Amino acid sequence: MISATTALPSGRRRDRAALTVLTVWHAALCVLLMAGALATLASASALDLLTIALAVVQALLALGSATAAALILRRNHLGRTLSLVVNYVLFLACLIGLAHVLGLFMGLDDLADYMARGVPFLMGALFIVGYFVAATELRERPVPVARRTLGQVLMTIGAIGFALTAGVVPALASIPGKYVSSGLLPLALTAGAVVLGYMLWSMWRGESARAMGAKNIHSERLNGWLFLSPNLLGFTLFFAGPLLFSLYVSFTNWDSFNKRDWVGLDNYRRMFNLTVQPLAAPDQPANQAMDVQVYDELFRVNLLGQSYLIGAEDKRFWISLRNTLVFGLLAVPLAVVPALLLATLLNSRLPGMRIYRTLYFIPSVAAVVGVALIWQWMYNSQVGWINYFITSAVNLINSVFGTNIKDPQIRWLADSDYALLSVVIMSAWQWLGFNTVLFLAGLQTIPRELYEAATVDGANPRQQFFNVTLPMLAPTTLYVLITTTIQALQVFDQVFIVSNGTGGPGTSTLTMTLNLYQNGFQSFRQGYASALAWVLFVVIFAFTLFQFRRQRRASGAYDL
Amino acid sequence: MKTTYRLIGLMAVAGLTLSACAAPVAPPAQPAQPAQPTQPAATEAPAAAAEISLRWRTRPDNKEEADVYASISDEVAQKLGIKLTYEPGGSETASYQDVLRTELAAGTAPDVFWIPGTDIADFVQRGLLLDLRPYANATEGYSDSNYYPEPMFHLTYNPATGKTGEVLWGLPRDVSTFVLYLNLDLINEAGAPDPRELAKEGKWDWAAFKEVAEKVNALGSDIKGYGMNAWWGPFGAFMNAAGGGFFNAERNACNLNSKESLEGLAFARSLYDAGVAVPYGEDSEPPFRAGKVGMFQNGRWATPGISTVTFNWDVVELPKGPSGHMGNWLFWGAYVVNKNTKHPEAAWKVVDALTQPDIQAKVAARGTNIPSRVGEAVFAEFLKIMPEKNNQAFLNGLADKPTAEGPLWTGSWPDFDKAMSAKVSDVLTGKLSVEDFGKTICDEAGKAFNK
């Protein structure tokens, strides 16, 4: 009698053996990961959310691994999917960990220096010429073998030259030393990456897929997820992860170095803590009306003949909120309405319009720091161009009309009444070009027939603008409004440069992001700064939601 | 063909990836150096010393100074037999300290770095700096008294015991102090007395200063008699000169509302009310360099930039205030060692080498700094540097009981500065009276001591 095993072809026997190995691997991996999760919890001096999160991730992977083992035994194709996901994630983790241990990320600064030497070699004649020699077809005839070979040789020499000039030899020479000096960890990570890579390949190959009953549609789905994985993992690691981390930090008093105690909602309480005290007289000193050890005077108000003092535990938060909202209220219309009018002008078919379009777009691509520094000079009340022109204009008017208008000598950035306005003008000027281009693109999508029909109906240009152009531009306008509002509420670079990072004069240019920066990176109150960031997020979200709702009411479209 | 392309692509990617692992780019070949004098005895084996690689950073004031630091770095590396990489830090406006703190939090900060004096307490109390006392005690010829005593008070202060001399957090890189940069052409044209002569005669006080400023100011609507920049140093000098100051004697409470501090602030305010000063909040250096300001108050660091102006210029010490002193500051910053450095002893040697007289003289020769060491030889050497005619004004400032730019060991200097500077800005721009400032400032700024 011949047994079933011996009756199987050798290929199928190998597949079964491979799946058995994978089952055992996942069972072992499950044990390892659970042990890791328990070790993480046991080794932590104090249980905090980060430790718990790390342990939970390991436990989830362990669960996935155990499920994969069970499903592989039952030859369920979901087991293959789970196996691939678990092995893939751990494989990447090993590679990233290895790169970190070997100092790869620390060397990224040096990479710029190496690139400067290596890239010209890569982009130079050998590589580029080699590609054209090897790949360019002439008159749809196939490339001759000799030419293709020559091209490949040239490209290979170019690539080798690049690798050499980019420092592969010293890098390779330094790696064994790093393995030796870093203990067992690099070896363990390398071994882990090799084993996981092998398991990944073992389950990925077609024979395993067939043995697990995977169909084409399953493979296609996996291919799709594989292509998406860099973006998904990048999003999780570098966006969603930090976002959730900052939410966690906002409930702590983390200072980036030592302290990270859970303080619950205390950061938010401190931020919103206000006191309203009636005053015996409008000029009653603050220290007689409220506890000045806790509160600072924010402002005074008179309601129905009674004066009140409003104090805040964090005065700078309220001032920055006010400044940010004022900035947004001024800067958004200034950057949107002129952009719409400008786009309408630039949409005409007059000669030279392309040059004007380019000119108006230039401020948008200019570096914010450079622009802010130039404006800072222009705003100088003593030697700046703006006051020079104002003085010249006043003098001209006085001499021509015999008037006696006083030169205002505005202290643009030195007077707290003008400083924020100065930053508004500067920012609106810089955002104008980009908004103009967006409106221009929107204008060019409006069918000419609508204007022709409006003309036939007797509509004049003004009526055409309000009844055809504006409604048809609604989607573009919504986009421009939302992006400009977000930019305005997050304004940082401009105020940082013109106030030298202080938010001055006084607190007149202290915006929410600058206040956040000062707390997080100057006073190192990362917990409080994170709370500020989340409040800013809520403010921006509320504005965006409001604009969406308003737009929906206006047009019945763009539901959120 | 596909395989070939894949291989070539793989080589390119491998080249890029692996090159990030490689050692830093080697500096360009240096010309042959003359034989070095005998090295001080090293406690580490020569072979080990050769493998030591350290990074250090300081904030240069300009490109030329960065080049000087780079050449000094090579010199120190050769002297100590280690690999030493100099990283020029950003400028003052490029948030040098903020970047440094972030790198310290991330564990990527250099082994040795410079920080301003006001930051010492913050860095020490966060446990970021290495105590260098054991290494200093073992170094032949080292003494705390080689340096100005004011910065050494803070650099040897032990917050755990409240005593000085027990620890050593670093060594001062240099010191600086305020002078008035003078546009002599404007002063002559205005017929004002020469401030340098008044200083020599002991008549250079606030009244004389204001008189010169007013006379220069009368030259035209675009001319200002005086200019200072908007930060704590300039207005603090007026408070100090009146006998006040930011803190009480123990530096654990706010003193901004004292009669003397308010008197100093009121005098500063009077300059703006009279219209003789460049509006507070505007950079006074561009109009001074454009020949539109008679007297510009700034530190030693401004000298190289101002030396390029086309008018006749010189410096004079600050005028004496009601206290009988100039109320000047002793600005300083220190080289300190990262607590996480792998080579603490070598890092100390770098700090020690960077503050040796010959090295300090090279930096001072750029005109930006004053050596942090004291002694007649150091002073004599400094007096040879520009402006040669009257460099004594800086040393006079340092000799007249200056207040050391100092950290707050019992509070948060950034919080104190934020509360103080915002309110002072309101006073000097006419938005707040000195009296109202005095009523509320210590309620607000005093909270910095509770942190």
Terminal Cα span of chain A: 70 Å
- Provide the gyration radius of chain A in Å: 33 Å
**Average pLDDT score of chain B:** 87
CATH class descriptor of the largest domain in chain B: Alpha Beta
Instruction: Write the CATH fold name of the largest domain in chain A.
Output: MetI-like fold
Major beta sheet summary of chain A: 3 strands, antiparallel
Q: Judging by the overall fold, what is the CATH architecture of the largest domain in chain A?
A: Orthogonal Bundle
Query: What structural class do the secondary elements of chain B suggest?
Result: alpha/beta
Low-confidence stretches of chain B: 23-47
**Major sheet of chain A: order of its strands?**
1-3-2
DSSP, total strands of chain B: 13
Question: Secondary structure elements and their pairing?
Answer:
The complex is a heterodimer of chains A (560) and B (451).
Chain A: H1 4-7, H2 10-43, H3 49-73, H4 77-101, H5 108-123, H6 125-135, H7 145-165, H8 168-181, H9 185-204, H10 206-211, H11 216-249, H12 266-272, E1 274-278, H13 286-289, E2 296-303, E3 306-312, H14 315-346, H15 353-365, H16 368-379, H17 385-401, H18 419-443, H19 448-456, H20 461-472, H21 474-489, H22 493-498, H23 512-522, H24 526-555
Antiparallel strand pairs in A: 1-3, 2-3
Chain B: H1 2-19, H2 46-51, E1 53-58, H3 63-80, E2 83-88, H4 96-106, E3 112-116, H5 120-125, H6 133-137, H7 149-155, E4 157-158, E5 163-164, E6 170-176, E7 179-183, H8 184-190, H9 195-200, H10 206-217, E8 224-227, H11 232-241, H12 259-273, H13 285-289, E9 293-298, H14 303-306, E10 313-316, E11 329-337, H15 344-354, H16 357-364, E12 370-371, H17 376-382, H18 392-399, E13 403-404, H19 413-428, H20 434-445
Parallel strand pairs in B: 1-2, 1-3, 8-9, 11-13
Antiparallel strand pairs in B: 3-11, 4-5, 6-11, 6-12, 7-9, 7-10
